[in-house]
Amino acid sequence: MIIVGLTGGIGSGKTTVAKQFEALGIPVYIADVEAKRLMAKSKIIKRKLIQLFGKKAYINDVLNKQFIADIIFNDKTFLRKMNAIIHPRVAKHFEKWVLKQDAPYIIKEVAILFENGGHTACDYIITVTAPKDLRIKRLLMRDNTTKNKIQAIMKNQWTDEEKIKYSHYIIDNVDMEITKNQVVDIHKDILKRA
After folding, report:
1. What does the pLDDT average to over 134-154?
2. Which end of the chain is more exposed for a tag (fewer CB within 10 A), N or C?
3. Average pLDDT score over residue span 101-121
4. Rounded Cα distance, 150 and 139, in Å
5. How many angstroms separate the CA atoms of 91 and 1, rounded?
6. Is residue 145's pLDDT more than 90?
7. Non-local CB neighbours of 40 within 8 Å, separated by 6+ positions
């Protein structure tokens, strides 16, 4: 099974691109969705996050995302410790998920694919890019957030230039029609390689 990593900075449009691959019949695993599910359901993860962040990590048994976000994006030590709790469990879930797939290749969408070393387990890597000002504009429209919070997240992610050095394919996600065409071209190319 060919594993294709799909990554890009926050607001670049990774999920939009992932949906386009899904529309072509390619199974897509979105690591962030699985991580959130595990943080909500896993008793072990809940216990470890409460040990790490304190009792405010969960309110009425629901993850206190804003409280945790304020801590991890201002202190990389907490971010690393949280990732060490979550990422191994997401990786195990992904391994099980791959075994159930029947396709020439699969897409694994991970925001911090390079930052967490996940790129080493991929056969090919697609990086989705967009100008920083456009990414910020998208996020301000999409999320209930501030420019400062977005920039704090961006600081914890590799730049597009760093990601491009290690990528096999680049999708410049500014115009939806052009992006769709790029996805189709990459899809055809990976099918040839499969």
Report:
1. 90
2. C
3. 94
4. 8
5. 16
6. no
7. 62, 63
CB 83 within 8 A of CB 32: no
Q: What is the pTM of this model?
A: 0.90
CB of 166 closer than 8 Å to CB of 119: yes
Over residues 76-98, the mean pLDDT reads 93
Question: 72 versus 22: which is more confidently predicted?
Answer: 22
Q: How many CA atoms lie within 13 A of 142 on its CB side?
A: 13
Asked if the model's pLDDT at residue 66 lies above 90, the reply is: no
Question: Pairing relation of β-strands 105-109 and 62-63?
Answer: unpaired
| Residue 181: alpha-carbon gap to chain centroid | 22
Rg (CA), the chain: 17
Can you tell me whether residue 153 is helix, strand or coil?
helix
CA–CA distance, 20 with 95 (Å, rounded to integer): 23
What pLDDT, on the 0 to 100 scale, is given for residue 12? 96
* Residue entry with tokens 């607001």: 11
Cα–Cα distance measured from residue 126 to residue 163, given in angstroms and rounded to the nearest whole number: 9
At which residue do the structure tokens 């390619």 appear?
Answer: 26
